[in-house]
Amino acid sequence: MQDRIKYWKGIEELENTPEFAKHAHNEFPEFLPVGEGSGQETSGSGKTHRRDFLKLLGFSVAAVSLASCEAPVRKAIPYLNKPVDVEPGTANWYATTYYLNGDYNSILVKTREARPIKIEPNPTSALTPIGTSARAQAAVLSVYDNNRLRTPLLKGKEATWEQVDKEIASRLGSVSGKVAIVSSTVISPSTKQLINEFGSRFGNFEHVVYDASSSSALLSANNGVVPGYDFSKANIIVSINADFLGTWLAPVIFSKQYITNRKLSSDKKDMSRHYQFETIMSLTGANADIRVPIKPSQEHAVVSALYNAITGGGAAGSVEGIDSKALANAVKDLKANSGKALVVSGSNDPSVQAMVAAINNSLGANGATIDAATPYFVKQGNDAQMIRLINEMNNGSVGAVFFYNANPAYDHPLADKIAGGLKKVGLKVSFAERVDETAALADIVAPDHNFLESWNDYEPKKGYISLAQPVLSPIFTTRQMQDSLLTWSGNSTSYYEYIRNNWRKVLTGDFNKAWEKAVHDGVLQNGTSMLAVSNTFTPATIGAAPAKPSSGAIEAVLYEKVAIGSGVEANNPWLQEMADPISKATWGNYVAMPRKMAEEMKLEQGTVVKVTLANNSVIELPVLVQPGQAQGTVGIAMGYGRAIDSMPVAKGLGANAFPIATVANNSIYYTSPVKIEKTNATSEIAQMQTHHTIMDRLVVQENTLAKYKENPKDVTEYIRIATHEGPAKPSAISLWDDYEYKNHHWGMVIDLNSCIGCGACTISCQAENNIPVVGKAEVLMRREMHWMRIDRYYSAVEHEPKDYETMEDPAENPSVIFQPMLCQHCNHAPCETVCPVAATMHSSEGLNQMAYNRCVGTRYCANNCPYKVRRFNWFAYSNNDKFDYTMNNDLAKFVLNPDVTVRGRGVMEKCSFCVQRVQLGKLEAKRENRRPKDGEIVTACAQSCPTEAIVFGDMLDKESRISKVLASEKGERAFHVLEELNVQPNVTYLTKIRNLA
């Protein structure tokens, strides 16, 4: 057994600062109520007053007293003519597709009484049959956004569609100059065809595609498409600044592939090895076996060293400031696994991508780990094409421009030039759902439907087509963009019929039957391709490295957060309150820098710094000390700094970091030299998890593949207690009477080797269980309400010795491990014994239950819970203007799950193992006079996991998957957290295994 690894949650715990030590053991923080206004407003200063609470309490008590005098009037109006497919109280499911900025998910949408309330993966899909992204889970809330446009706008004023159509017809009839449609990547075959047909009416037309997070260099090096990467076939993966598990290209698809070769079992004791060279600590880097921090200026040199060694057949050269041993091992492993190796890069440098393509070709990846016959279409943005259009707008040669799913006045590095150029364009039309930064500059805003209100088709990968269908009628007076183009083309066909006509090319046999099957299944996967992608990219060639920044310059990197991405969904409060998988920060961006740099600059976390960019623009943000950040660099997330009224959730959060991106040689580079100056201001960063300590207890476990192969029974440490008969399991001595489960015994297994920390499960749980959003101020007060969290632990396993005082710097490049933490549903639950009113009790099937109407809010149970997974409703989050997120307006409340109670103030709540799903599954089985089948009852977190890290089931069913996993892993990787307490959890974890070189 290896020496005990010491873990820490954040720099404050690693350093054991006086402030952290003072509050580490406090169960509840010092009380600070919300102040006037929303959570975002009060959190800015962090100053609130006790009298605010008294005012709030006084009002609430008075309101309750007044309300109690008169019973509310509630009317239930039955259907006069009930729709055939709607049964009140019964869910309907519809197959559709979510796609946004490369994030593709084939999904099923659950509706209740025609209200979409939950998104799940579509098991029929070959690309995403399991799991979804966090953004896809949160997308169901966006359709109920009260800030979407209700009508079209004509010169900033509300108008009718008839007025807009008349204006468009008049203006297009006399347009002079180029007509352009600017969009983000379009993977809809029918939409692409329609855009081309619309443009054919004009003598000079261009469909310009750009992506806020561009992959233009990758496309240039690969004939205008994304190579058909297949991580499941790779024994060795080398990634250079490609966060393919988090934000790069198609993370849900790649996650499924990646984990296929990482799962271990009694029959499979081998796994892929993953090297990651990167600047920021990304989600993918956190999952790597070997991670090497590099500066952006070193990226070209690292790839050149790999290129020369692989294509030239020599040894890996050295790169100044880079771990030469890791680089040499990467080359050695790549050569030894020809045909089973894969190299990827997230760089937007054409030269780097040309070398990566040559490396893969030399390794025999094409036709093996890269399927050239089935490339991906998820990114098509052309930097040079967009830059050319911007220049044309500024020289007055563009007569009309239409913006579809594009907001370049915010998210393009030449945003100022775009705003100036639009003044010279005669007709400017936006299809935005809200008045965003670009729509504010348009003459006409023709708001598009939300994707849940629309028909469409998608082809994310050649030969893999999916459909989207509306799951509810349009909420506002909007119109699908495609229907607008058809109307303005003089075509009376609806877009629905247009898609059907287009699909007649690929559906065989009886068309109507084939169409209905395709709509029902949501996918068509017969190898047919419908999407034509033009290869207009200049081929990338290998060139010299770009000029290095001046000595001592700080290199800034612009990156995407897993939740917020490029900022399109920044007004979604579920995503804003989702903890970043690495920093655990919410509600804003920050300047991530390594600890050594912070110490040298005498900066502390929360200190606001002024960041001056190469173009002399300035942004101000607080510092976040980030372990693993490359020395001499800082990282700042895109998607923040919104100042528009149509995004009140995001307004005022952080700063717009897009100016970091620079344009050179018709390419966009997401890095820039910066100057950082300390200010006298401070701004607290709202982080989750870091305010507790694990106090050196055995919570997470990991080991190496070599030791696992040597002896699987020696990779997990099991706690034993001393007895007069010798060491024994903690369960051997107990004051408790054990439960006898006769019917079902529900449990969960979480494989730490499969959990990548993406956080999709946390949003899925929030959507399923009506968990409120509390805002930044309350997160700062440690009052987040999430029923499950993804704990992120740092360790320094590669350092010797493992004593902090003698380490060089354990935070310089730590290892990372993720652990989903939720109610453990203990058989000997310590919460149950201390509740004075028996609000929390044990079920006959192993669930730790909460009777909400019995809870009086003593919080004894939370204090007695060793896992800290119980959440207390400090305030009424529903119908409260101070928490104006998802439960304060009638429209947003449509997303609530009617099968789950909305809890009130003073009530304790926590994970219920989705008991509503358990009961529904049991009732369905009972109606058919049988027992539930394994896999019929799945918790929300397990269903949304893209790597199947979570297995839920009945442990009394010997044929269930969970029973088989527990039987095979017993005594090997299976362990319980804090087993020494003898609370006997029903959640079992499997030890993480690292494939170290």
Give the key terms:
997 residues; 38 strands; six-stranded mixed sheet; 29 helices; seven-stranded mixed sheet; alpha/beta
Task: Walk me through the structure.
The protein is of the alpha/beta class and 997 residues long. The chain contains 29 helices and 38 strands. A seven-stranded mixed sheet has the order 6-5-15-14-13-7-8, with helices on both faces. Strands 20-22-21-26-19-23 form a six-stranded mixed sheet. β7, α7 and β8 (205-209) form a beta-alpha-beta unit. α11 runs parallel beside α13 and α14 (383-394) packs across α16 (415-422). The longest helix has 19 residues, at 50-68. 54% of the residues are buried. Residues 31-72 and 798-807 have low confidence and may be disordered.
Please give a quick description of this structure:
This protein is α/β, with parallel strands linked by helices and 997 residues long. It is 25% helix and 18% strand. A seven-stranded mixed β-sheet has the order 6-5-15-14-13-7-8, sandwiched between helices. Strands 20-22-21-26-19-23 form a six-stranded mixed β-sheet. The chain has a four-stranded parallel β-sheet with strand order 11-10-9-12.
